[in-house]
Amino acid sequence: MLQIPYEFYPKEITYQHQIKANISVDGLPYNGSAELFMNGATRYVIGSIIQNGVVHFQYLPDSFGTKSFCFLIYKDGRPYMSDLITVDNVIIYEIAISTSGGGGAPTGDPATISGKVERVLDNQAEPAARQLVAIEHKPDGSWAVTGNTTSDAENGSYTLEVLTDGGDTFVLAVDEYGVPFTATASVVQGEIIHPTVPNGHVYRVEAGGTLPATEPTWWIDTGTNHTRTIEGGITLRAIPFYRPLSHGPIKAEPLS
Fold first, then answer.
1. What's the chain look like in SS3?
2. pTM score
3. Residue 109: is its pLDDT beyond 60?
4. Which of 127, 134, 182, 213 has CA atoms 20 to 30 A from the CA of 172?
């Protein structure tokens, strides 16, 4: 089971570093979610929805100045990883990712990774469907996305088919972030939407309809305040959006 880690930083740490980048995918400016991961521990740092390829993460701790990082992005439902970069308050990185090779394209022999994903909802553990991404730390020190799948909603189980060069693999569980609120858009039961300004929650449509012309006043899940009906008769359920969780290092099991 993947569990949510909690981290506490000493008060004396200051936050003055930043990373700026222009990300292109297959030669075009990237639009979508971009997540920053720390090299070595495969630790999720921060994520954002970006437009026209422009990403700017500010107020990073001073301790990050000696670390290296990579971006994880998605295209057509598949994950891709950038080359490593470092924190720099001057340089604007030009990051080009190819979905047909390069940018951490997987290599190696066929293998599998199996496991189970659970989430805690209303203080109860239950199986969960999550997008899973396998990232391998190759023997030569490079990183690559080696496979992805979605865990089963009924029992939380999954089997990842990956390519491995015998390195250490980390499996990331990513919450569904859905689509941003769009005025007067039609939504149906089961869809996930999120505020245009992130608040740590996403909202699952319990009763569909047409979204209002103006964004509602969003609420958070307090344990008793789950659902509300907004303008247009649409009922939404607030669900905490957890940062991606990492499980590993583990070794992929080669296929015989």
1. CCCCCCCCCCCCCCEEEEEEEEEEECCEECCEEEEEEECCCCEEEEEEEEECCEEEEEEEEHHHHHCEEEEEEEECCEEEECCCEECCCCCEEEEEECCCCCCCCCCCEEEEEEEECEEEECCEEEECCCEEEEEEECCCCCEEEEEEEECCCCCCEEEEEEEECCCEEEEEEECCCCEECCCCCEECCCCEEECCCCCCEEEEEEECEECCCCCCCCCCCCCCCCEEEECCCEEEEEEECCCCEEEEEECCEECC
2. 0.58
3. yes
4. 182
